[in-house]
């Protein structure tokens, strides 16, 4: 698969100002995004997500490094060539950025007016776009008369007006409720399939990544700390930050009544483990095999099974009444069964009965 976007050793430093020190928002980052893929970037607030996505269309200029889109080095273009290249890169925003004095039709028409198209050409392009996003009947409405989801549909139609090859989505669903978020993401997925457009989205929510992305990069303090397929990040997260973003999203975190009693030192009771299963292992009776093989009674304290891009995966939080060598042997057994084991700490034995 050929690449659509390449960042090569891209850094972005914001200089110091009167009231703040200099910030390196992105450091020496290499990133390749394939043609036709839906690529997600996730990270906490301040990780550098907005900076990264704005570097792709050069709304931010890199302090160093190269940004290539569809084989063209954007950093080498003069202003007029850059304007032309940007028509290949649509963008949608968290707060939609519609013009309140223009109708839905005229908002979508704006980039075409700027590109110098005739009224007839504009009409022939805008109408199918409004149909694509499900707003054919709202053409004459003003933004104030629309719901948040409808406003974002206008944003999407406007971003597609110049027939871009890339669509950048800057927290595009963060201002929407969960149901509207799902419908906007479904629309973006359809657009990716129908038009073959490459989509890059940034978000702080794993649910967004889970619903439509093919691959995801996890950004932390201006660096990519993990990059993999979405299936692999959900079932085999490596970086601690990825695990914590996942726990918040999938509800596989330690229940609060257990967390309060958790100790980081063995206290002669149980050891708490988080187990992640994926693929066929999600349904296999690995816990009962552990009991049979090693005579360990396993208490299941919390568990769930989920599906990401047609792959099922499960998480269990279990307590084992062992520590030391017996614990190490149990972990080795689980790992040999392809279970990802994450030790969480130790619990007093009395809690086991309480579950
Ligand atoms: N124009 C700017 N001038 C100075 N510093 C900036 C500027 N824009 C961003 N920063 C700083 O760069 C770092 C990364 O910011 P960025 O907005 O890219 O992160 P983010 O992951 O998108 O965060 P959020 O989710 O809160 O928007 C932060 O420390 C931020 O304060």
What would your notes on this structure say?
There is one protein chain. With 355 residues, this protein is of the alpha/beta class. The chain has two domains: 3-238, Rossmann fold; 251-354, ACT domain (Alpha-Beta Plaits). It contains 13 helices and 14 strands. It has a six-stranded mixed sheet, sandwiched between helices. Strands 2-1-4-5 form a four-stranded antiparallel sheet, with helices on one face. Strands 12-13-11-14 form a four-stranded antiparallel sheet. It starts with a strand and ends with a helix. 35% of the residues are buried. Adenosine-5'-triphosphate is lined by residues 14, 23, 25, 43, 45-51, 204. One of its GO terms (molecular function) is ATP binding. Pfam families: ABC_tran, NIL. InterPro entries: AAA+_ATPase, ABC_transporter-like_ATP-bd, ABC_transporter-like_CS, ACT-like_dom_sf, MetN_ABC, MetN_ABC_transporter-like, NIL_domain, P-loop_NTPase.
Brief overview, please?
It is built from 13 helices and 14 strands. By secondary structure, the chain is of the alpha/beta class. The site of adenosine-5'-triphosphate has 12 residues, from strand 2 and helix 1.
Task: Please outline the helices and strands.
Layout: E1 3-14, E2 23-34, E3 38-42, H1 49-56, E4 64-69, E5 72-73, H2 79-86, E6 89-93, H3 104-114, H4 119-132, H5 148-160, E7 166-170, H6 178-195, E8 198-203, H7 206-212, E9 215-220, E10 223-229, H8 230-235, H9 240-250, H10 256-259, E11 270-278, H11 286-294, E12 299-308, E13 311-320, H12 324-336, E14 340-347, H13 350-354
Parallel strand pairs: 3-8, 3-9, 6-7, 7-8
Antiparallel strand pairs: 1-2, 1-4, 4-5, 9-10, 11-13, 11-14, 12-13
Bound molecules: adenosine-5'-triphosphate (ATP).
């Amino acid at each position: 698969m050929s690449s659509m976007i390449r960042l090569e050793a891209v850094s972005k430093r914001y200089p110091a100002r009167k009231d703040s020190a200099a910030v390196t928002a992105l450091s020496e980052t290499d990133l390749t995004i394939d043609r036709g893929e839906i690529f997600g970037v996730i990270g906490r607030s301040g990780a550098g997500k907005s900076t990264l996505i704005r570097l792709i269309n050069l709304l931010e200029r890199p302090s160093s490094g190269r940004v290539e889109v569809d084989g063209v080095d954007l950093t080498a273009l003069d202003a007029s060539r850059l304007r032309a290249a940007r028509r290949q890169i649509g963008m949608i925003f968290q707060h939609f950025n519609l013009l309140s004095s223009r109708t839905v039709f005229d908002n979508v028409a704006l980039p075409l007016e700027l590109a110098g198209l005739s009224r007839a050409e504009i009409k022939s392009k805008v109408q199918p776009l409004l149909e694509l996003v499900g707003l054919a009947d709202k053409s004459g409405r003003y933004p104030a008369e629309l719901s948040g989801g409808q406003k974002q549909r206008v944003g999407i139609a406007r971003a597609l007006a110049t027939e871009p090859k890339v669509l950048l989505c800057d927290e595009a669903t963060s201002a929407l409720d969960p149901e509207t978020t799902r419908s906007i993401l479904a629309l973006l997925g359809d657009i990716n399939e129908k038009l073959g457009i490459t989509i890059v989205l940034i978000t702080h929510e794993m649910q967004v990544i889970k619903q439509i992305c093919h691959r995801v990069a996890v950004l932390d303090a201006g660096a990519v700390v993990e990059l993999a397929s979405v299936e692999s990040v959900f079932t085999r997260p490596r970086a601690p930050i990825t695990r914590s973003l996942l726990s918040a999203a999938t509800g596989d975190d330690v229940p609060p009544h257990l967390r309060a009693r958790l100790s980081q030192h063995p206290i002669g009771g149980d050891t708490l483990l988080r187990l992640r299963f994926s693929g066929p292992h999600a349904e296999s009776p690995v816990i009962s095999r552990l009991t049979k093989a090693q005579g360990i009674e396993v208490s299941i304290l919390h568990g769930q099974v989920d599906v990401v891009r047609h792959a099922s995966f499960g998480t269990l939080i279990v307590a084992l009444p062992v520590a030391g060598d017996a614990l190490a042997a149990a972990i080795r057994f689980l790992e040999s069964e392809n279970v990802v084991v994450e030790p969480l700490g130790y619990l007093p034995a009395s809690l086991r009965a309480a579950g």
